[in-house]
Amino acid sequence: MGFLDDLRKGAKMAQTAQKRAQEFAGAAGSPAASTGNRAYDETFALAQILREDSERSPAKRRKLDISLTHFPDDLEGLELVEVVGEGRRQEAISAICGRKGDEEVAFVGEAILVPDWQNQPDRPNTNATAIHLKAVDGDRIEHVGYLSSDDGKRYRPAVEAILGHGRLIGCSAIVRAVDPEVAETPNAGVTLRLPSPEFIVGLS
Questions:
Q1: Whole-prediction pTM value?
Q2: How far, in whole angstroms, is CA 61 from its chain's centroid?
């Protein structure tokens, strides 16, 4: 079974869970609340552990077995989606891509879209989707930003469709920082290469 067939199955499984998931995410926001879809619930809970561990030192993070549906770079119709909030997470980005100081960098890694729908006091957005970054050949994962509010809302159904099959979305991520002598900011930016959310949920 190819990944397109897999996504079709995931989208169908998510239909029943979607309404309940939106209700509990918008209310209590607790990963312990059940949607009735075991794959969805277990993966959502693992995603919250991943988010919580991103605030810990790497040595104290728990090892998690999270399955990904990764969209290849050669898939037609990929969109470039900008990550926001990465300005406050430059240390984490540098830890993944090996950037030293404010040097110029061009790096391609793997991004993971992690639901962060617990309506935290400092981020009251039930569509919030955290972006975690890892090197293609490495195990370390760091939280490097979020989808924008608009993109979080757009991709919410797609994230739910994949959650319904017990997986998170994975895609290529481009990290870029230009020469600090000509840059408006020394910060490295992160851009995702994703298919449209309509493509993902429209496979059912």
A1: 0.78
A2: 18
